[in-house]
Amino acid sequence: MTEKFINTEADRLWPNLMMAISIISGFEAFILIIICTVSIIGNTTLFVLFLRSKTLRTTSNGYLLNLAFADLLVSVLNMPVTVVTIIEQRWIFGETACTFLGFTTMLSFVSSVMSLAMIAINRFYYVVRWKTYRSIFTLRNSVLFGAIVWLISLIASLPPLFGWADYRYIPGKSYCFVFWHSGVTYMYVMLTICFFGPPTVMSLSYCHILRFTREARIRVGQHIISRNLKSDDEMASYGGCPRMTSEEVKITYTLLIVVACFMICWTPFVVTMFIAVYYPQPLPRSADISTLLLGYMNSMLNPMVYGIRSRAFRKAIIRQFRVFITCLRNRAVSVNTSIEQLPKRLESNNQLTRNFPPRGYVISS
């Protein structure tokens, strides 16, 4: 009797449970769709601005595009598949696709943190070692440094394809990634590569930059009254670096914000990764998926930070928006003109029809 009652109660509650799971899955998918859409639009806009605006074609912005490409990679390939997997509540794309998407996720993650380290190094030489900046960051060297970033990322992402750990479907996060239980040593190597090496480089670089900036401001303060310095160039020269203008200081803080966003978004993901390896019980679904969504959110934050903080990017966005609006207006005017001229063209065609054949012209049979 008790068993029958339990079965009856389970049958009664099962539809409600499935409906609740569907609602939660729909909400998760909706959030990820927003993140994916904003990320694709924002990072694509960065590429368009870089290609169409000469003032933005700098070495530093080139490395920012490296970061934007990594964000686009995960936004175009991985996020849409994760949306489908969340809705279906299972993996439907096959083992080969799972391995490929796990590989691209790892490649994107490693290239992102490597790009941030390269940006920090570039900024360090631009501000602190400005006398040797042009000799080190030539066009050829800059391209080479960018290629090295992707080469390191590629090498770091390959081991699971050759048996050192493997890429599998992770049900709690509804995506494919490294199954860390199959290669704990690989996990520690990746933590060293991604969360100890580059962050250490970034910390040292930005500490030197901030200290140099603070000392430059002190030197400027000592001369500002006696010399009556007014322009940014004058103050930067007395600070010890001709490039240390207020806008350059703001750019440095903007890049620090980008690094902070990356660490805030991905640190919870790394924590759950550790817990999943050493804690015998599976983590709650809410903890797993929320850390993944937070990590994905980092891909859409970078363009927003640039747009809010960088005057050059804002000007370029406004300029391209005005060009777009002008093109739309010209297109509308052209269409309206064509519509207005349509009756005249029809009348002209009718006149030609009535006058054919011409008088005196005999059609031979």
UniProtKB/TrEMBL annotation:
Main localization (coarse): membrane
Transmembrane intervals: 20-51, 63-87, 99-121, 142-165, 185-209, 253-277, 289-308
Keywords annotated in UniProt: Cell membrane, G-protein coupled receptor, Membrane, Receptor, Transducer, Transmembrane, Transmembrane helix
GO CC terms of this entry: plasma membrane
Superkingdom of the organism of origin: Eukaryota
Matches recorded under Pfam families: 7tm_1
Subcellular location field: Cell membrane
Segments forming domain G-protein coupled receptors family 1 profile: 42-306
Membrane topology: Multi-pass membrane protein
GO MF annotations, alphabetized: neuropeptide Y receptor activity
PANTHER family in alphabetical order: G PROTEIN-COUPLED RECEPTOR, G-PROTEIN COUPLED RECEPTORS FAMILY 1 PROFILE DOMAIN-CONTAINING PROTEIN
Family indicated by similarity: Belongs to the G-protein coupled receptor 1 family.
Protein name per Swiss-Prot or TrEMBL: Rhodopsin
